[in-house]
Amino acid sequence: MPAQVSSERILFTRGVPAVEALPNKLLSECFQAVLEGPEAKTVLQYGHNSGYLPLRQLLGEQYGVAPEQIVVGNGSLHLQDLLSALLIKAGDVVFVEQPSYDRAIKTFRRRGAKVIGIPLEQDGVNIAALEQALARQVPAFMYIVPDFQNPAGVTTSLEKRQALVDLAERYKFWLLEDIPYRTLRYSGNSLPMLRELNANRVLTVSSYSKLISPALRVGYLIGPVEIAKKLASLEEETILAPVLPTEAAVVEFHKRGYFEQNLNNLKQLYAPRLQALIAALKTHLPDVPFAEPEGGFFVSITLPKEAVKGNLLERARQTGLILTDGRDFFADPFSDDEEPDLGTRFVRLPFCALTPEQINEGVKRLAALVR
Amino acid sequence: MPAQVSSERILFTRGVPAVEALPNKLLSECFQAVLEGPEAKTVLQYGHNSGYLPLRQLLGEQYGVAPEQIVVGNGSLHLQDLLSALLIKAGDVVFVEQPSYDRAIKTFRRRGAKVIGIPLEQDGVNIAALEQALARQVPAFMYIVPDFQNPAGVTTSLEKRQALVDLAERYKFWLLEDIPYRTLRYSGNSLPMLRELNANRVLTVSSYSKLISPALRVGYLIGPVEIAKKLASLEEETILAPVLPTEAAVVEFHKRGYFEQNLNNLKQLYAPRLQALIAALKTHLPDVPFAEPEGGFFVSITLPKEAVKGNLLERARQTGLILTDGRDFFADPFSDDEEPDLGTRFVRLPFCALTPEQINEGVKRLAALVR
Question: Using one digit for the tens of pLDDT, what is the confidence trace for B19-28?
């Protein structure tokens, strides 16, 4: 008999920020400053087609690149869509980590690529498997979330980062590194970005969705000038320009020191939630190994084969535990010949929007289902 | 010898609002109210994937449709791009008025359509030419700007509006009516929207770019629920959701009565500019006929054949008069067998961002070049 559980619904679904952490008052001040300051008319008029120049300058300083190397879009998914339109030609493949971010997989497919999953281990993709895949076909690009990966929570080791850029150089393909969680590190030290290892082969995308607010939809891409130019031109043809006042508010948010302040708040809120999740997994599912992340939004587990009986999602739902279908993160379920349906026992656990109590209760319910 | 002209640069280029008319203070109040009010957290979190529900409710009341029939996007061009992805199949044609909005033409082409121009007369498209084109191939849709057309300034007559929806019904194609200027009427009375004549065959797009601020990039599409659903789903896959705080600010702008107030300001500012342009054309180019609009952003003229010598754009530039290449508005220059290069003598004159003095001076310079 499972232990008695509370009837509260617990959502381990998408990676959403904690609602209490959304800095509405600070943003209100920033919008006011922008719309009543000297740039007010500029940020309400047509213009700044690759993104608001002061934001590109600010990012340029942060990343040590020229503003001409940066394109701002309405969220990073938007930029991934445009980039896919630019880079994917008929017959192309795109490589992703397996598992990977479900919306990215869908985007690459919708833009015409065959998406191939390279198995992800606890320290990054399996490099031998990547080499085998490269020997068959070189991709238009490979999509990587090197820090606190979505969905697995894995951080790619320095050794594997180096191997990735070396292979990208040797086989001449782009690495698209997506780093929205990188700054949300609760312990330990950051490894170099892929672009720091070889900027000529790397396109970097990130956004403020997890760092300020997802509804602002301010994302950006950094790459060589010739790619940034083509992307900006496609962006102009498609949407004219990204929304300006939100970009200007982000610049103001930085200028006032709110970015650091808010980041610290987020870390203080999210770090104990991550610790609660790790502790709950070790308590309630002691035999299930998992990568212990030092930041980000996600921990994931792969349940033992014998543990998953029936429809796990539906059985979880009946206990008020809402999970995402793990299969969505597997671009290429048949790449694992031994078990084509690995996704059915893959469970992503986004922890940021849940209290430690909810996290513990959720993991307890999950454990009861697979006992 | 041309008369001596001032050296000030005059831009008759794109249709931009007057910078002094951008309501930055009012918008600042609205952002503040939104970000410090009860909806603050909602408009900063993920959600509202087809657009902010209160905005869709407000538009639903205005247009007499259900919120489920409305999809909000980051500007109407964005929605035209998504709609094109949805409706245009390989081998499809799209019909446009000839001349038509250059960015729309490019969008339909980039999404794979062959774009066919139907000659535009002073009261709307030539219906006989449209019938001939329909006899050859029925388009995926026909793109129409029925009110104060961009670039020509033409308003389609009631008779031709009826003919358009009748043909759309008979041949079963969509009419995509784009009405961003409709509300900016400085005199006379509005004719019914195409959707009022037959909502089953009409998709309506519009935006707040000309009515509040272009940098907000708040546009919307209205159509049957099944189209709106498909479009919203493609939008979610592509960008997750349109930017939320800007949409919420637009709702607040309406709630506070600022929309009507601002619209009246715009009319008071723009009406004399339109009058100045009409007067200048009658004074300096008395033999060139043109459609006299009662609203909007544009008047256009087609210069007499014999008047255009050499490269008009370059010659104008040398006098500080900056024009847009008229050929960009002609999707299909060869549809007019008598004169394939009609666009070279087509001049669009956007008047909203120029003072009456600048308008008069600009037309004087243009007249001196073609005398």
Answer: 999 999 999 9
CB A274 within 8 A of CB A186: yes
CA angle B79, B219, A53 (to 5 degrees): 95
Task: Measure B216 CA to nearest chain A CA, in Å.
Answer: 6
pTM: 0.95
**What is the distance between the alpha carbons of residues B219 and B83, in angstroms, rounded to a whole number?**
13
Whether residue B46 lies within 8 A of chain A, CB to CB, comes out as yes
Mean pLDDT of chain B: 95
pLDDT tens, residue by residue, A59-115:
999 999 999 999 999 999 999 999 999 999 999 999 999 999 999 999 999 999 999
- CA B34, CA A27: separation in Å to the nearest integer? 11
Q: Do B74 and A46 touch (CB under 8 A)?
A: no
Sequence-distant (6+) residues with CB within 8 A of A286 are none
pLDDT at residue B6, as a whole number: 62
Taking alpha carbons only, the member of B152, B193, B149, B151 closest to residue B175 is B193
Q: Does A86 touch chain B (CB under 8 A)?
A: no
Per-residue tokens: B337:
């067998």
| Structural domains present in chain A | 10-22+260-370 (3.90.1150.10), 36-255 (3.40.640.10)
Residues 6+ apart with CB under 8 A from B141: B87, B94, B95, B173, B174, B175, B176, B203
Asked if A297 and A350 count as a contact pair (C-beta separation under 8 A), the reply is: yes
Helix or strand holding residue A72 (H, E): strand A70-74
Instruction: Locate the DSSP E strands across chain B.
Output: 10-12, 70-74, 93-98, 114-121, 124-125, 141-144, 174-178, 202-207, 218-222, 298-302, 321-323, 346-350
Compare all CA atoms of chain B with the CA of A33 and give the residue at the minimum distance. B28
Distance from CA of B104 to the nearest CA of A (A): 9
Rounded distance between C-alpha atoms, residue A78 and residue B38, angstroms: 29
Q: What size, in residues, is chain B? A: 371
- For residue B347, the surrounding DSSP H or E stretch is strand B346-350
- Decide: residue A263, CB within 10 A, 0-12 exposed, 13-18 middle, 19+ buried: middle
User: Does B243 contact A216 at a Cβ distance shorter than 8 Å?
Assistant: yes
Q: CB-CB: which of B32, B78, B245 is closest to A238?
A: B78
The pair of structure tokens assigned to A301 is: 């587990």
| Residue B317, H or E segment | helix B312-318
Question: Residues 6 or more apart from B254 whose CB is under 8 A from it?
Answer: B58
Cβ neighbours, 10 Å, residue A259: 20
CB atoms within 10 A of CB B136: 8
Q: Give the C-alpha separation, A228 to A164, whole Å.
A: 22
Q: Which of B31, B46, B217 sits opposite A28 (nearest CB)?
A: B31
d(CA A184, CA A226): 31
* Tally of CB atoms within 10 A around B194: 24
Q: How far is the alpha carbon of A221 from chain B, nearest alpha carbon, in Å?
A: 15
pLDDT tens per residue across span B245-256: 999 999 999 999
Return the structure tokens found at A1.
């008999």
Closest chain B residue to the Cα of A244, Cα to Cα: B215
Q: Mind telling me how many Å the CA of B298 is from chain A's nearest CA?
A: 17
- Chain A contact for B263 (CB, 8 A cutoff): no
- Neighbouring C-alpha atoms within 13 Å toward the C-beta of B234: 20
User: In the prediction, which pLDDT does A318 show?
Assistant: 95
Q: Length of chain A, please? A: 371
A27 with B106: Cβ contact below 8 A = no
Query: Which residue in the block uniquely carries the two structure tokens 């820090």?
Result: A147
A&B contacts, CB < 8 Å: 155
Task: Spell out the alpha helix ranges (H) of A151-287.
Answer: 158-171, 194-197, 225-239, 244-255, 258-284
Q: Is the pLDDT of residue B4 over 60?
A: no
Q: Report the run of H or E that residue B332 belongs to, with start and end.
A: none
State yes or no: pLDDT of B182 exceeds 90: yes
